[in-house]
């Protein structure tokens, strides 16, 4: 998925970053320190964490699956959401 976005968006996966296994709270704090936005498929994140205190935009992808094939159709809308996101906002991108 990292290569699916235009050059205007620098995308890194949790695994690529070495953050696999971090709990949601720890992951959010790590991402907040280094990025403007977090793209996730965790539909429960907004109900499990207090996202209003973050200075990180959250984009949640809802595709009915988490495979690359399921998520690729959301890339254009996700890219637009990322480019227009404001810190502290939560946006859900659906098919």
Features:
95 residues, alpha/beta, 5 helices, 16% strand, globular
What would you say this structure looks like, in words?
By secondary structure, the chain is of the alpha/beta class. The chain is 35% helix and 16% strand. It is built from five helices and three strands. Strands 1-2-3 form a three-stranded parallel beta sheet, with helices on both faces. Strand 1 (37-40), helix 3 (45-48) and strand 2 (57-62) form a beta-alpha-beta unit. The longest helix has 11 residues, at 24-34. It starts with 13 loop residues before the first helix and ends with a strand. The mean pLDDT is 90.
Order of helices and strands: HHEHEHHE
Model regions low in confidence, pLDDT < 50 over at least 5 residues: none
Proportion of residues in β-strands: 15-25%
CA-based gyration radius: 12 Å
Structural class: alpha/beta
Main pleated sheet: 3 strands, parallel
**Total beta-strand segments:** 3
With helices defined by DSSP (H or I, 4 residues minimum), what is the helix count? 5
Globular, elongated, flat, extended or rod-shaped: what is the shape?
Answer: globular
Mean pLDDT: 90
* Straight-line N-to-C gap: 17 Å
Helix coverage percent of residues? 25-40%
Q: Record the strand order, biggest sheet.
A: 1-2-3
């Amino acid at each position: 998925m990292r290569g699916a976005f235009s050059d205007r968006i620098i995308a890194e996966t949790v695994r690529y970053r070495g953050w696999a296994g971090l709990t949601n709270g720890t992951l959010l704090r790590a991402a907040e320190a280094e990025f403007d936005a977090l793209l996730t498929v965790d539909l429960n994140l907004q109900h499990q964490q207090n996202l209003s205190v973050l200075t990180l935009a959250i984009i949640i992808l809802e595709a009915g699956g988490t495979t690359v094939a399921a998520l690729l159709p959301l890339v254009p809308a996700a890219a637009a959401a990322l480019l227009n996101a404001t810190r502290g906002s939560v946006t859900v991108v659906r098919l």
